Each structure stands twice: as C-alpha cells, then as structure tokens.
C-alpha cells in the first residue's frame, strides 16, 4: 500500500487533542435539585450501572478515535499497488475472415471485442488503452483512454468489414502510440498465425471452424452447350456440399459435390441452347462458419454496338480497322453535305471538317482545320519523325502499344490550354491531344494525316484504333469482378443523364460524376447494378464483389514487430486500486453509530 497524498496523515494530530479533551473534561456536573430523596432511594441501582456507563464512555472515545484515523486515511488517499501500469495498444483485426462464427453464432470479431472489453475493466487500476481497427484501412477507435465505459462505447461502433486487414497501416498507428508511452504493451487480436511477433502479443481468435468457400466461376461456350465451371474448398472438414446454379436470379440446377478436407473441388453445370443472360451464380446453403463466401457470381459485360460516322474521302484505313473490331456500326460519308450530324456515339472527321462539331457523341479529328476551342496550331514540320507516347501519363490508350518504328512525314505542332492533354508526340511536339467535355463527350485531335505515316501498315494500328474507340466512348465500368475493399471507377457515357447504383441489398444511390467519372469504395458482397439514363434509352451493367480468397482460408503471417521505448523506464508508473470508497463508507457508518450513542447518553 502507498499514499498518494501523505500530507493527509497530519490529521492524526487530532488523536492527542481528543485525548486531552477527555482528560480535562469534567466528570460531574453541579445542578440544584429540590430533594435528594429519590437519589438516595436509587443509589443501589446507580452503583450497579456504573461499570456499564464507564464502558460506554470508553466505546464512545474509541469510535471518535477511529473517525479521526479514517478521516486522516481518506485525506492521505491510500491505494493498493498492483504492479506496473501499462498503456495498452490494442489492434483489432476487422477483416472478412473475422466473421467466422461458432455454432452459437458468435463470430471471431465478437469474441475479440468481448475480450478487449474484459481487458478494459482493469483501466481503473491506472492503465490506459488505445484501440486500433485494422480493416482495409487502419483507424484509431479511441486513444489513451483510462475509462472502460469509453472503450466499450468505441468498440460498440466498430464493425467487421468484408475486406482485408491492413497490418502495415495498423502497425504504423500502433508505433505512433508506443512512441508516446513509457510503458506500452501491444496486443493484436486476430485470426492470423504469425511465426514471429517480436514485442507484440498475438491473441489467436481462430478455432478451426468448418467453412465452405466458393472461389470462382467461369462460362465456356461449346457449340450449343454452355458450360459453367465453379470451384470450392471445404476447410478443416471433409464434406458433401450441395451447390446450386442460378441464372439471372432464378435457380436452374443443383448437385452434390464431395469435398476433401482443404482440397479444391470443381463443380460443372452443362446447359443446352442457353438464352443470353446477364448474371450466372453458384451458391451453397450450408450452415458453415462464414456466409459471405457462399455465393459467387459471373456478370457478363454489355457488348454494345457503337454507332460510328466516318467522314472521309479516303476511308480505307479507318473503315477496315473499325469494322474488324466487330463492335461498330460504321456509316461512311465522302461529303458532309446534307448529312445530319446527330444520333452517333462517335464521329470521325478525316480531312472533312464540319461548320459545327456535334455534341451528342465523341469526336475524333484528323487535321488542323477548324480546331475546337482551347486548341491552336503550332509550327508545321515536313520531316520524318518517330511517334512516342506521353511518358508522364498513364492512359488506357497505350495498352498493348509500343509505337516502335512508327514515323510521320508531315505534322503540325498543337498548342492547347489546361483542358487539353497531350497523348502522342513527334520528338517533343504534341501531335495528338484530347479533352473531356462536361457532358462526357471526348474530343480528340490528330495533327497529321494517317496517309502521311506508316501507322496503318504496323501491327500496332488495329490496337490503336480499338483503344481509341474505348478511350473515346468509355464503358461504364472496366471489369465485372471486384474484391471487397477495392474502389470502382464508373464512367458516364456521352449524352447520359442521371446515374444510379443498386447495391446487393437493393438500396439505390444516385451517382455524381466529376470529369465524367465517379469513384466509389466497395465493401458489401454481392451483385451491383449500374443504371445510366439517357435521352433516348437507358443502359445498365452488373458487376460482382466478393471477399478475397485468402480471407476464407486459414491465414499465416511471417513477421510483425513494434519498436517499444528504446530507454526503459527505471521507475515505471504503478497500477493501483483505490480504497477511498470503503474508507468513506466506514467513516459514515461509525459517525452514525457515534451520533446515536451520544444522543442516547444525553437524552
């Protein structure tokens, strides 16, 4: 035991004062009475009560003495020392695998939260606690709290995600907390087994629960047959699993698959003369420990036919490349007279220039006559020069392209404002620039004639035209399969209106784009639908979000570590437990007894 305020013991000086008061206090009082007859009559009874009266006086003295001692102890604030106090830095794994639940339905995450709350009950003894949630991004739930109620409230707001555990960010936050502490202790509640943990105490929350995980789904066309091939694994147990197949949300087939323990198995469904579909999904109804990996879907990307107007007097190179893509309905016009420039997804002007450019579709121009706003002609060059890309830019336009050996005989330099982005160069002079308009329409200008270059004769040419088509008319999404924790970029189509995203739980969110794009984080598992309403018709596309494969499997890690204080504290702060409450309770109780006794003696 130790005293937080030893000066309070000066109140013990009240003990000799109390003794002196009792010594000098008169034992008898003089009072005038009318007769002593009654006293003489009761004298024999008074002699019998005299020892008891003396005992009461001694007990009253002892009660007052104890009250002085208790008052001094309360002022001195005595505490019971329970060893060194710690600043606990707790890392809570919030990844998808922590959703594994036992037979009673309690997940690993719930068990970890309960364990942390139990640990927080010791905070009243002088400890503090910092809690860090390690999900796709790590965040501090509470920092340096000495209140178990505050820690419990912060944990109540934490939720397990469908993404991964960003251990690196969590360790960085933990290191910052340790740097502020003289006596830190790091606890990591996770289901990942680490071979080396350094200064970190790893609390393993896994219990080898049985889990069946669906990991993939492919579709293969074989004549009139459509073959669906999926994969699954049964972890920790051998099991016979019923797997179903659903097409566009309707179950069409099911079969039993025998799975060996921790060995990948394959399930195959074959269907004849399938009608076109948007989504195919395999699913299981097993009562395993993890539900978010019991479904896996394949969403087919919409293969739209792009309407392209090609205005050129020599359209051979461009027409043949566009037709070969198979996704274009090409309309070729040798003149712009009496041609309605509307209703197209892409307009290509090769040597022919309209008085006004269309605004309902993307535009590609070969030549420098009648340049759009924000773009000007530079110097004209009549010499062979190699074509190169903008190395400071990452663009889908460059996918699969090398431009090795590509040269131009004649070209004009382009000068554009900040709305225009250079994409191709001849030497250091921009010869291809592009700009994205507010309505999603992309305007691209080539300052050279294809006939004055060797591009149409190179293997890169059809790739360039295909990339140019996708670049000019971006699809809403680039792929249809995502991992929880990823971000998706949704592009608005030229001339599109309102955009919506339907989540797996069927809630709908309105999307707002900036520069024709909208970036969203993905956490919920399931099938999403993007809907884009246009003036003439609406378009939609589906995509599927699943947990990472490693989140369904038992996880192991190599090494984690935290550098604690380089100079250990020679006199660490001690964890204590105060007894002030019990002293105050005893003081009040004795005060009540003393008052009752005194009142009885007097009256």
Explain what you see.
The chain is α/β, with parallel strands linked by helices. It is 22% helix and 38% strand. The chain is built from 10 helices and 33 strands. Helix 1 (14-24) packs antiparallel against helix 3 and helix 3 (43-76) packs antiparallel against helix 10 (580-602). The radius of gyration is 41 Å and the shape is elongated. The two termini are 43 Å apart. The model is unreliable at 566-571 (pLDDT under 50).
Topology:
Blueprint: E1 2-3, H1 14-24, H2 37-41, H3 43-76, E2 78-84, E3 87-93, H4 108-120, E4 128-134, E5 138-145, H5 148-156, H6 167-179, E6 184-190, E7 192-196, E8 200-204, E9 211-222, E10 225-235, E11 239-247, E12 250-259, E13 264-272, E14 279-284, E15 295-299, E16 306-312, H7 316-325, E17 328-333, E18 346-350, E19 362-366, E20 375-389, E21 407-416, E22 421-426, E23 429-436, E24 442-446, H8 460-472, E25 481-483, E26 487-491, E27 496-502, E28 508-511, E29 517-521, E30 526-534, E31 538-546, H9 549-552, E32 555-559, E33 574-578, H10 580-602
Q: How would you state the average pLDDT, rounded? A: 86
Helix content: 10-25%
List segments where confidence is low: pLDDT < 50 over at least 5 consecutive residues. 566-571
Strand content: 35-45%
Record field, number of beta strands: 33
Main sheet: strands, sense, barrel:
9 strands, mixed
How far the N terminus sits from the C terminus, by CA atoms, comes to: 43 Å
The 3D shape can be described as elongated
- Based on secondary structure, the structural category is alpha/beta
Strand order of the largest sheet: 17-16-18-19-24-23-22-20-21
Number of helices: 10
Radius of gyration: 41 Å
